[in-house]
Design brief:
The complex is a heterodimer. By secondary structure, chain A is mainly beta. In chain A, 0% of the residues lie in helices and 58% in strands. In chain A, strands 2, 4, 5, 6, 9, 10 and 11 form a 7-stranded mixed sheet that branches. In chain A, strands 1-3-8-7 form a 4-stranded antiparallel sheet, with no helix packed on it. The chains are: A mainly beta, B mainly beta.
Amino acid sequence: SQTIHQWPATLVQPVGSPLSLECTVEGTSNPNLYWYRQAAGRGLQLLFYSVGIGQISSEVPQNLSASRPQDRQFILSSKKLLLSDSGFYLCAWSRDTGELFFGEGSRLTVL
Amino acid sequence: QQQVKQSPQSLIVQKGGISIINCAYENTAFDYFPWYQQFPGKGPALLIAIRPDVSEKKEGRFTISFNKSAKQFSLHIMDSQPGDSATYFCAASKETSGSRLTFGEGTQLTVNP
């Protein structure tokens, strides 16, 4: 069966510090990978998606970047965090179409 | 541009009652409409989904009603239970875009015992 792991689960970072959130998928090959952000009381905003190694598409211009160094690894990064980067970050995977499978999420607080 | 509008933002229902959440979309190219359920501190999980070739889909106590001409779809939870208390998201996508879903803003459902 397929599983998705996301870490760290909780992160408190000062403004201006770097960020690295990691996500790995097991039990499948060549998945589509996604990073979503969920602000408090808000919906899910697609940040990045990837259909293959090194292939990243950005949906929203922002202070964040994503990389896919391996087939089943997706990383969300920032060089300098802003207060507005606080939120609940969700990694997800899918096959070509249909259901999205989400990880447990990473809660980021920027102080 | 918000392409999927969801209402209400929050909903309180008594145990055994019917919960109804509504969504409206703008993009007529959307052809896949799922509902996701999210418990606090967890990632969302697919609850039920519909494609526009049918007007209704039922899975247990959960039903999606779809109105293509009005560009609206809704989730009905029959015999609501306290364990159904969660945040519900509607979403939409074009099949050609893979699973790049556009989500509504969510409805926080509370079912009182």
